[in-house]
Amino acid sequence: GAVVSQHPSWVICKSGTSVKIECRSLDFQATTMFWYRQFPKQSLMLMATSNEGSKATYEQGVEKDKFLINHASLTLSTLTVTSAHPEDSSFYICSARDPGIGLAGQETQYFGPGTRLLVL
Amino acid sequence: DQQVKQNSPSLSVQEGRISILNCDYTNSMFDYFLWYKKYPAEGPTFLISISSIKDKNEDGRFTVFLNKSAKHLSLHIVPSQPGDSAVYFCAASARSSSNTGKLIFGQGTTLQVKP
Questions:
Q1: Parallel/antiparallel/unpaired status of strands B10-14 and B62-67
Q2: Reduced to 3 states, what is the DSSP secondary structure of residue A86?
Q3: At A79, which helix (H) or strand (E)?
């Protein structure tokens, strides 16, 4: 399957600082990437859809000014957690659709390994 | 509003036996369904998918069944192996004019395969 990488794999930061997480599709171009958040023992919650060359689409309840998303190229999307607080501590996972396989709208999403964020 | 539900939080199966993981959905617009396997502190790994035009898809030890009238799908793993022990998520998407391919995930079922 397609490979998606994330960097860093874990990060510890002080409250009030900003943290940037990178998501890259390594062997395919992704016009659309997705950012999820997972709390312990819970499901993956979609935060936003990242679109190359345009603004991200945020899910209800997700603050776009706090979680800045930039999809600078067909292989890179970044999520910046601004002014991080302890409640932002979570496991952040990105995914990318491989448009080369499947019908439009039915492409399989491939996930990165996730980034563990701990805000002190 | 939980559109995709996995009502069994956990399942324990003996090695070599069949594992059956279930998933129900409420949105009749969903037309593509996927199963992912996830280990702690890792991203989900794609296992198998099925389009709504089919009722069965098989890939090695994994088979997914779709019952559209019941809005129910299941993942069968046979024979189960200890390495299959993980959390399994079902996910669904609906084609729309925006074609975002957004996935809605169930809560997950933790499968334990005992040697």
A1: unpaired
A2: helix
A3: strand A76-81
Looking at per-residue confidence, does B107 or A97 come out higher?
B107
**How far off is chain B from A32, nearest CA to CA, in Å?**
8
Q: By the 8 A CB rule, do A5 and A111 touch?
A: no
Tell me how far apart the alpha carbons of residues A16 and B67 are, in angstroms, rounded to a whole number: 49
pLDDT of residue B97: 47
pLDDT of residue A109: 86
What's the whole-number mean pLDDT along residues B91-96?
Answer: 83
Q: Do B46 and A1 touch (CB under 8 A)?
A: yes
pLDDT, tens digit, 9 for 90 and up, residues A12-22: 999 999 999 99
Q: Smallest CA–CA separation between A57 and chain B, in Å?
A: 10
End-to-end Cα spacing for chain A:
36
CA A97 from centre of chain: 12
Q: If you average pLDDT over residues A92-109, what whole number do you get? A: 75
Q: What's the sign of the alpha-carbon dihedral A86, B102, A34, B46?
A: positive
Q: What is the secondary structure of chain B as a DSSP string?
A: --SEE---SEEEEETTS-EEEEEEE--TT--EEEEEEE-TTS--EEEEEEETT-SEEEETTEEEEEETTTTEEEEEESS--GGG-EEEEEEEE---TT-----EE---EEEEEE-
